[in-house]
Amino acid sequence: xxxxxxxxxxxxxxxxxxxxxxxxxxxxxxxxxxxxxxxxxxxxxxxxxxxxxxxxxxxxxxxxxxxxxxxxxxxxxxxxxxxxxxxxxxxxxxxxxxxxxxxxxxxxxxxxxxxxxxxxxxxxxxx
Length: 127
Known about the structure:
Strand 2 (74-79), helix 3 and strand 3 form a beta-alpha-beta unit. The protein contains four helices and four strands; from the N terminus they run H-H-E-E-H-E-E-H. The chain has a four-stranded parallel β-sheet. It has one domain (20-123): Vaccinia Virus protein VP39 (Rossmann fold). It has 127 residues and is α/β, with parallel strands linked by helices. Helix content is 21%, strand content 13%.
């Protein structure tokens, strides 16, 4: 049976029942996408994110792929590993939150001007 997108049921289901915190406990200071994807993503961010904006890097890691020559007003990072987030020089501040468990972000409404979640599929489990 397929869902409304034509995908088989369970296409995005987790392969295990382990808590996400266990998987994300060890830091992984690696690139999750290749050089071509990084260049494309950085170019996309350059074209759509406001240069003077407050941004949310949702499901962040040790690198944000934001254009290095643009100094945004603030970049707020969200993720699941403190060591990875602390190693990200683009983040002005960050927080840890399991979005599969708690879906409301601890941010004031209207406080962000833009953002991205390039690794979002890796974090979000179909519920």
